């Protein structure tokens, strides 16, 4: 685990500075998904065979980062709407309005495309 942290620090110093929003979310992460559970979930798929030791750690970390980003953006939308809670409607609105989350749109609203024109 220490070696992976060192590799991450080396990667951060050798690449360009990330977007400030993403850096803020990354620095505040305190949740961790156990690699054993991630590996177990990954192996429920019949197409996945053997999994290297680092794969569940990386997949878990990516999941943590994604969830933190989704919660941050949803919190921003909730505040903009004048509420303090992140509800399913707030999550849906976040997914429908954020370009980075467009891959989730079909899961949120079925086959329909979000309307881009304001309702009258």
TrEMBL record:
**Domain of life of the native organism:** Eukaryota
Record's subcellular location: Nucleus
Q: Which InterPro entries match?
A: CBFA_NFYB_domain (IPR003958), Histone-fold (IPR009072), Transcr_DNA_Rep_Reg (IPR050568)
One GO cellular-component annotation of the UniProt record comes to: negative cofactor 2 complex
Task: Provide an example Pfam family for this protein.
Answer: CBFD_NFYB_HMF
Where the record annotates domain Transcription factor CBF/NF-Y/archaeal histone, the positions are: 32-93
Keywords associated with the record: Nucleus
Q: Which SUPFAM superfamilies match?
A: Histone-fold
User: Per UniProt, what is one GO molecular function of this protein?
Assistant: core promoter sequence-specific DNA binding
A biological process (GO) of this protein is: positive regulation of transcription by RNA polymerase II
Q: Which PANTHER family match?
A: DR1-ASSOCIATED COREPRESSOR, HISTONE-LIKE TRANSCRIPTION FACTOR CCAAT-RELATED
Task: Please identify the protein, giving its name as recorded.
Answer: Transcription factor CBF/NF-Y/archaeal histone domain-containing protein
Q: Which organism is it from?
A: Naumovozyma castellii
């Amino acid at each position: 685990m220490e070696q992976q942290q060192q590799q991450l620090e080396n990667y951060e110093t050798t690449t360009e500075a990330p977007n400030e929003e993403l850096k803020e979310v990354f620095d505040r992460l305190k949740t961790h998904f156990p690699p054993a559970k991630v590996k177990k979930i990954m192996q429920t798929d019949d197409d996945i065979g053997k999994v290297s030791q680092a794969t569940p750690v990386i997949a878990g970390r990516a999941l943590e980062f994604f969830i933190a980003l989704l919660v941050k953006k949803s919190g921003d939308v909730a505040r903009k709407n004048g509420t303090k809670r992140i509800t399913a409607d707030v999550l849906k609105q976040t997914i429908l309005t954020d370009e980075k989350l467009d891959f989730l749109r079909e899961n949120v609203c079925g086959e329909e495309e979000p309307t881009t024109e304001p309702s009258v």
